[in-house]
Amino acid sequence: MKLTYYGYPKCGTCRKAEKWLETEKLDFVKVNIAEAPPSEEQLREIFLFSGLELKKLFNTSGMKYRELNLKDKLPTMTEDEKIHLLSSDGMLIKRPIVVGNGKATVGFKEENFESVWNN
């Protein structure tokens, strides 16, 4: 099965992740997360497959996160509200995201990619 890679072309970490996927010769579709963020349904799948807390899907170092004062707002939001917000703006989502085969990774750490995508 082909993987889906959500990244942002100007993001150095995303470029490293993309290069890793290419080096490992993994079959993936590249999606610009700013132009085509994952849908609510896709985000629920990423959330489930990644095993992470939902707040870990937010790009906490992004300007948009700070502008919206999400550090203070997230604790009082419901899961549905958080997923809806994430789906509305790809720049709110931590990247890169790779999803497929019932698995998902958020962010890029080579050792994590090794253990998840080379098995």
Question: In terms of topology, how is this protein built?
Answer:
Layout (H helix, E strand, L loop, with lengths): L2 E5 L4 H12 L4 E5 L7 H11 L12 H5 L2 H4 L5 H10 L8 E4 L2 E4 L3 H8 L2
Describe this structure in words.
The longest helix is centred in the N-terminal third of the chain and has 12 residues, at 12-23. Strand 1 (3-7), helix 1 (12-23) and strand 2 form a beta-alpha-beta unit. The two termini are 13 Å apart. 42% of the residues lie in helices and 15% in strands. It has a four-stranded mixed β-sheet, sandwiched between helices. The protein is globular, with a radius of gyration of 14 Å. It is built from six helices and four strands, in the order βαβααααββα. With 119 residues, it is α+β, with helices and mostly antiparallel strands.
